[in-house]
Every structure is written in C-alpha cells, then in structure tokens.
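Researcher: Go.
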Amino acid sequence: MKPRFLLPLIVTVLLLCASCYQHRAGRSVFRPHTLTERTIDSLSFFQTHHYTNNYNFVVRADSLVLLRQLPEEEVAGMNTDSFCVYKGDHLAVADIRMVPADSIDSVWVQLANDTSAFGWTHEKDMLPRVMPDDPISQFISAFSNSHLIVFLILVVVFGASYLLWKAFKKKTYIVHFHDINSVYPTLLCIIVASAATFYATIQLFAPQLWQHFYFHPTLNPFSVPPVLMVFLLSVWAMLIVGAACIDDVFHKLQGPQALLYLSGLAAVCAIDYIVFSITTLYYVGYPLLVAYIVFALYRHWRNRTVYLCGNCGKPLKHKGRCPYCGAIND
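Model: Structure:
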C-alpha cells in the first residue's frame, strides 16, 4: 500500500469505529403519560448519581459484601445474613432505596449477580469496589488508580531518562533536540500536552461532567458537551497523528534508528502527559503549555532541513560538505 493512502485509510477506520460504538446499556425513551412515581424517582436519582435501575457494574475489588435482608432490618439492629460477590463478577442494579434513618449512608442499592442472587449495600461501600461494565469506563478506572499512577510515573521517569540519555550519547535523532525533517513528532507532542491539560481542566472545573462521562462513555466527540468534545477530538487527533508519525519515521530512518527514535518520542509524550496533567491541577499548566508550544515549534523550525545533497539526495540543514557522502554543495 502506498504511503499516501495509509493516512486516509487510518482516519476512515477510526471514524467508523467511533460511529459504531454505543454504550451497552442503551437509552430508554420515556413518554410523559407513562411516567410513574417510581420512574420519576429513578430519573431524579440518575441526574445526581449518573446511574439507575438496570445499570450494569463489574466488581473490581477483591470482594463486596451484600445484605440479603432489607436495609431497614439492618438499621433496626435485627439479625441479618449476607453473602459476597468477588472480583470480576457482573452485577445489575435491581433497586435503589432511601433510608433516612440510616446515619451511615441513606442510599442503599440492591444488586443482582449472574446467579440471580439479590443483596443490598450502601452506595458509599459499593462505588469504590465496582466499575461500569464498559471497556472505556474500565480503562478510565484502571488509570485512575493512585497506586498505578505512582508506579507509571516511576517507570516513565526511569525509562525516559535512560532512553533520552542513550539517544544523546549516540547522537541519534530525538524530537525537539536533534529532530528529523517531519512535523508529525512535534505535532504529536503538542497534542499530548494539550490533551493532558484538557483532561486536568475537566477534573478541576467540571468533575460532575467527567463523572457522567465515566458512567456513560462514548467515542463520538459530537455527542458530548463542548469541553468533553475538545478532549475527545484531541484523543482522536493523537491516534491519527501518531499513526502518521510512525509511518513517516520509518520512511525517513532505518529500522533500528526508527525504533530508537519512536522510543524516545514515546518517552517525551509520557513526560508531557504526566507534567501537564499534574501541573494543570495547580493552574501552572496553562502558562506552561503556551511556553511548551512555543518551544516545540521553535525547535522544529530550527531542526528543519531546507536543502538536499546534489550527489546522494540526503537532507541538509545548510550548504557545504554533505555529512553522508562528503560531496560539496554550494
């Protein structure tokens, strides 16, 4: 397949995937004359808690204890029985009950598992131990784990330090410093930094919006509010530019050089994500992003090649002796 056809093909496939993806829970259409009091309560609960009856969860903790009896019996101090569901078990919300007399948590949720066993639990005990039964939500849940984040930061710092040190030592190509004649690596770094800033901005100023997206994710940027739309568009841009970047790098560098360059690029992108997603939470990320974009564009302009060797055809930054074949270019 010719390189000029690769990028349009990738864009088409990604857009088709986005248009076909639909949240598994689906959407129900309610007609006003059929709304019961129970339905109205369910819709009211949905507005603030982002889930309601028939919503599907998966257990992510080691276990979750469910009460067989009614919540009122537990609150009254009566003898009750319980059972456990375990990591990976699928659960569905069967009922939601408000118990004002409960001083611990007034919201009780009844869950049903695959064996049709029903049990009650406090919402505050349930939510940290379950996640929505959706791959996007599970991806978000995995990367929201504080222990995983700390581990990834350590891996990225040590891995990036080693790769960058190796690249500088060998005087090989590396984005921003000794870059190839391609705009895609610089553009990818800018997009990653911007996406991390948008993500932290949503966390900072619209946490309820992100919470709703977590429970009802989508890959379609045009079906969400503007802030989320910008974030999703940046994610799509990241995938498209990343694919174009890989294709362009392998056309400009030999196999081992290309792999080392892409490894260094991945390390820089990982550092961008960590730095901007953290600094934005303290408002430092915004001026830092502007400064980084200016720096990245300036370095790309400085590293661009404007001449070709008349003998071997290799790109040159300036006239004179070709570092590849030794020919003099005037």
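Model: The two ends are 37 Å apart (CA to CA).
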